């Protein structure tokens, strides 16, 4: 057990960040394009000090006959990168797969970076406001309530404001407790939760069902378009996707599709019956003619879907900041009014 722990710690220590992974693979693809062999390219990249340990492991495992995607998996490279390279090894176009995986991951990192940058200030502002609101509820409101208790008719607005803030914190505390309990249960039960249970939970919530459908459609289109270059049958393509993506949503969907095809159901009918994918993707299969045209259509679809996702996230980013500022502004005004209006009424009675 100690040996396993030491090995795990060593792996985590040597693991490249996602940005380092994309940069490393980008440089590797450039050297491969210049007709370097993969071992020679890796030897050159060892000049980068941060990559030397990872590259040593890569070289040793490649010399031992291990597959490139399996080594990257063990080195904890991003799963999307590993998937691209796995499917590339089926048709031999490793350089194009590395370039495409790097581009795909970079687009996601850019979107995630913009999203983090957009929500950083609202989150800090919201947390600061909640801290102030907590102390107002704990100290300020009780003090003012005691002050106004001498009035024959205490302020209704103060009572409503106190009750609203108290109810808000009660809901917040309950939500935190539920999240903690849910997290503990999921941690304990994660090995017992099957993919069928995950699918049921995802499909139970309309928003997650829609997002899962879009994401599965995108990854399915990308990987299938890559595999169609090999002139494999659709069944063989599904089998490769299933074998690589164990216990994932895409693997489960492909397993169901393959079962339908083995029972004699037509491809277009099986995809439409299962309703796992986006309508635009289903339309491509409805109008299929041959592998080359389908490959072209799938690549076009995945590009358009990525652009739609980028546009959607940018719209959300533009809405987040003003929405949070408006909510906090209105809350501050109402809190001040709940305190100041009774005070003005009290002054008038003196």
From TrEMBL:
Bilayer disposition of the protein: Multi-pass membrane protein
Main location: membrane
Compartment(s) of residence: Cell membrane
Record-linked InterPro entries: GspF/PilC, T2SS_GspF_dom, T2SS_GspF_sf
Keyword Transmembrane: yes
Type II secretion system protein GspF domain sequence ranges: 24-142, 220-342
Spans traversing the lipid bilayer: 123-145, 165-188, 324-347
Keywords, ordered alphabetically: Cell membrane, Membrane, Transmembrane, Transmembrane helix
Stated family: Belongs to the GSP F family.
Name of the protein: Competence type IV pilus assembly protein ComGB
Gene encoding the protein: comGB
